[in-house]
Amino acid sequence: MIARRHFGSPAIVIVASLLAGALYAWFSGEDINWDWRNYHEYGAFALLSGRFDIDVVPGGFQSFLNPLVYVPAYLLRHGVGAPFWGILIGAIHGLNLALVWWISRLLLGASASTWAVLASVVIAAFGPMTLSEVGTSFSDILTALPVIGGLGLILSAGERYAVRLVVAGLLIGAAVGLKLTNATFLVGAVTALVVVDRPFPKLGAFAVGSAAGGLATGGAWAWKLWEQFGSPVFPYFNTIFRSPEAPLESITDVRFMPHGLLDALAYPFYWLIGDHRSSELPFQDPRFAVAIVLLAMTIGVGFLRNVPVFRQRDKQFLLFFAFSYGLWLQMFAIHRYAIALELMAAPLIVLLVLRFTETLRGPERSRASYVPAVSVVIVALAIVVWTRPADWFRRPWSDPYRPQLTGALLTPATYMLLEKPTGYVVPLLPLASRAYQLSDIVLPIVPGGVLDRRIRWGLAHPLPGGVWALFFAASLPRNDLLAAYDLELDGSRNCERIPVVDNREIAACPLVRKSRTALEEPS
Burial letters for 371-404: b for 16+ Cβ neighbours within 10 Å, e otherwise? Predict the structure, then answer.
């Protein structure tokens, strides 16, 4: 019977997924994405070295995002030589394919032929944002693992649901604690449980797990922000928490948001033709448009034939996908944040192809023919050919980033950062150094506030190496930012140079006080 053909053992699938991620990371090169340069690298470093209470936002306002999620990539990058650290993190990312394989088998059930499941995995493997993040420090592809795993447990819960739903909640809650934008998937998971029999005890089990998971990964960080700044999500949602250290407005990136309902509905078709309005960098993706067309066709055929199309598990999956997608589009519309949905679009497309052919031909005729298998293979190949992945910038593994500091930069000093992204340079400096970012537009330093007092205290207690400004050598230094702290460039001494990952240089220039009046230590 087609439904019981061999799919390969889970162990083989897991190993193949690890290898796929590892090989792609090796082929693509060393990750040097802008966010890694700005705050990924610094956040993990600061968490492990205790620098958050010493420095002042070297990565700008993103410095306050939970850094725990960036620790795995940081430890691998600094603990294993190139290219092996990239290959290892890529292998971890590749495990998403094993989860897609599992979800596909759960969803397709009796329709799960080898070709159908393979088509689903192939569609997922070539996702444009998925490929762009394999082997990188981005957390979206990493937190997709617990999101998809949690969804699989929800779909497979059955009557003995308690343990599975608690664990599902732990996984998805942990993903939210690590990165708050994953809250869209938490809402999607709740809607998937609303349509089951006796939903309230199942929702209760999931809620217990999700609360525990969120606290485990994000509770300590939220408490730290609350203690220091009066907000557990500082500096975000400041219209609610009203921390005096941040502007009284919501920090929202509206560049990618749709303009009205029709524009929102058109987003999948924009992506189809390469209009990348949900991302800074270009990509092309037919998945969501194909899924919408197939869904309309399947519902239409079911209506004309007056037969039920979707099963209970199908409805749960569709609700999860629809609510997660709709909330993501309304709140962010930033494509990277939807990688879990991009991966889940693969089993969704295969499911819709098979349900369409079953409804059109009848389930018995569909099982007895090769039409469903041929259909999903054709659709999968067309999607792969049409897809164009994004590129967040990489270096060849033959030339990994290994800068060497020299001269005066080897002595602990205080550094005034005048541009972004320069946060990734901070871990290169002597550990006893201090780093103060002055140029963040979204989160300017509030005069007299916690961060301002920290800077002034640091300047009043100089380190052996003195005070330096860091800015890109091709730029002019921001003298206005330095003047706020009675500082200016010391023209009597030479600047040092720090090579950066994109073949530019950062100038490290010594500073002196503009006036003879010493900076007083704050009370």
Answer: ebbebbbebbeebeebbebbebbbbebeebeeee
